[in-house]
Automatic annotation (TrEMBL):
The keyword Transmembrane helix applies. It is found in: Cell inner membrane. This is Cell division protein FtsX. Part of the ABC transporter FtsEX involved in cellular division. GO terms for biological process: cell division. Keywords: Cell cycle, Cell division, Cell inner membrane, Cell membrane, Membrane, Transmembrane, Transmembrane helix. Pfam families: FtsX, FtsX_ECD. The chain crosses the membrane at residues 199-222, 251-272, 298-316. It is a multi-pass membrane protein. Forms a membrane-associated complex with FtsE.
Length: 326
């Protein structure tokens, strides 16, 4: 790249600009245009703030739904971890055989822990708690079997994996019956999948709406500066140079809109947290909503900036090129 200048003693001269200087000038021009675009927004604060608020509030709902899904996943994980497979052993097994079988199950990688409920201890506990002690004394033998409470390993707690483990346990020689209520696990998993799919669909629709809103705002801004753009093209400005300030406008929309989305999401979570606590207390739980962490807030902010940039890019690519000096 080179430029021409004229001195008093010489004619026009060609001066070469180094690649490093061109690189520095490129970023200096970008910084100037970014500041200039911010100045344009400050000149019309109400209109600019309304567009930013629409962008931010449009992202608030999917962000809040994400928090709900995240907390729901945590609840579902806790419930699945609490699930146990109840194994009833054959009555003719000796204590040594039950102990050996219990140790063998503890060595399995599919099982996290095994709790042995001795049939004699279970009968004694039932006699004390039921009030039928005299009736139980009339029995010739203990009617209760030894019971094992088996907690599956972490990767075996999904409904399909737990069912596979259940079938495997039923095939053991020492097992009379094994039970696990899979229906509620399957219903829980189906409900969580429905919530996730609904969240993704709604988030996608709202993101498209944000892109359209920003794009339409930038389009109106371009049309209002139509004469200025034609003059710039007459003096040799390229489309890329003209488009850049509008692109930075979209970025500013995203930056401020992301902050608004984060604040609105935090406020909404704080608002509903008391209701969630009240419901959890009815179930004797201390559960409370966990909001967005730092990494999730940064992702939300980047999404807002990306949507603002995408909306402005679509608008400037379509409309700036159509404006030509007569």
């Amino acid at each position: 790249m080179s430029i021409l200048f004229r001195s008093r003693s010489q004619g026009a001269q060609q001066v070469k600009i180094s690649g490093f200087r061109r690189f520095v000038m490129f970023w200096v021009h970008n910084a100037q245009q970014a500041v200039a675009s911010l100045g344009e927004l400050v000149r019309y604060p109400l209109a600019s703030l309304m567009t930013m608020a629409v962008l931010g509030l449009s992202l608030t709902l999917p962000a809040t739904l994400y928090v709900v899904v995240k907390n729901t996943d945590a609840i579902g994980s806790d419930w699945q971890e609490a699930a146990e497979i109840t194994v009833f052993l054959r009555k003719n097994l000796s204590q040594q055989e039950v102990a050996t079988f219990t140790k063998r199950l503890n060595l399995s990688p599919d099982i996290e822990s095994v709790k042995w409920i001795d049939k004699n201890e279970a009968l004694a506990e039932f006699r004390e708690g039921s009030g039928f002690g005299s009736a139980l004394d009339a029995l010739s033998e203990n009617p209760l079997p030894d019971v094992l409470l088996i907690t599956p390993a972490a990767d075996k707690r999904t409904p399909s994996a737990a069912e596979t483990l259940l079938r495997s346990l039923k095939g053991e020689r020492e097992v009379e019956e094994a039970r696990l209520d899979l229906a509620w696990l399957q219903r829980l998993e189906a409900l969580l999948n429905l919530v996730r799919d609904g969240f993704l669909a709604l988030a996608l629709l709202l993101c498209i709406a944000v892109v359209l809103i920003v794009g339409n705002t930038i389009r109106l801004n371009i049309n209002s500066k139509r004469d200025e753009i034609m003059v710039m093209k007459l003096v040799g400005a390229t489309d890329a140079y003209i488009q850049r300030p509008f692109m930075y406008t979209g970025v500013w929309y995203g930056i401020v809109g992301g902050i608004i989305a984060w604040l609105a999401t935090a406020l909404l979570i704080w608002w509903i947290d008391d209701a969630v606590r009240a419901i959890s207390e009815l179930y004797e739980s201390q559960f409370s909503l966990t909001g967005l962490n730092l990494q999730e807030m940064l992702v939300l902010w980047l999404i807002a900036v990306g949507l603002g940039l995408l909306g402005s890019y679509i608008a400037v690519r379509k409309h700036v090129a159509t404006i030509e000096p007569q």
